[in-house]
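Submission sheet (multi-component)
Chains listed below:
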Amino acid sequence: GDSVTQMEGPVTLSEEAFLTINCTYTATGYPSLFWYVQYPGEGLQLLLKATKADDKGSNKGFEATYRKETTSFHLEKGSVQVSDSAVYFCALSHNNNDMRFGAGTRLTVKP
Amino acid sequence: GAVVSQHPSWVICKSGTSVKIECRSLDFQATTMFWYRQFPKQSLMLMATSNEGSKATYEQGVEKDKFLINHASLTLSTLTVTSAHPEDSSFYICSARDQGLPIQYFGAGTRLSVL
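Outcome: structure written.
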């Protein structure tokens, strides 16, 4: 079945550092890909998405490109802030009927 | 953007009692709602898919009689944890799909602690 694999955390960075969180997937067909962010004690917020190959999702300085050839959707940000500290989940879905999540990557950004 | 309200945000109950969690789509109609469970420092696990006006579809290993799901309207789904036990303690999150749109919106989650 479909699955998502994320790089294991936790990830600790200094403010203004470059962030990459790797995400690869296994799926039939052409799923939509998502990144969600979860702040402490809260639910998930959609960060960005891409619905077809070569699409780039972007929001709040975060970017991820749907790479069909490498089945990847890596999350990047050029300069992280303390407020970016959270858990990030990569996910995939076919027609949004059933969403599969990666294990999550905890990011801590230190001043 | 679309808002999903989940209530309560935190509940503590005694073992053997039942707890009801509500999930409401505030500014859109949701034909489909999803219920997830999240253990500490782990990912979300889909428990069931709820379609308005019909019975929920449960994932393998999820007890239907223990986790009762009702989706009586296009804006409300409820999850009732019946005869709760300490092992049911977890973070429960709902999501709702806007009609015709390929996006799920998530509630803030409910932390259930069973004593």
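Remark: The mean pLDDT of chain A is 92.
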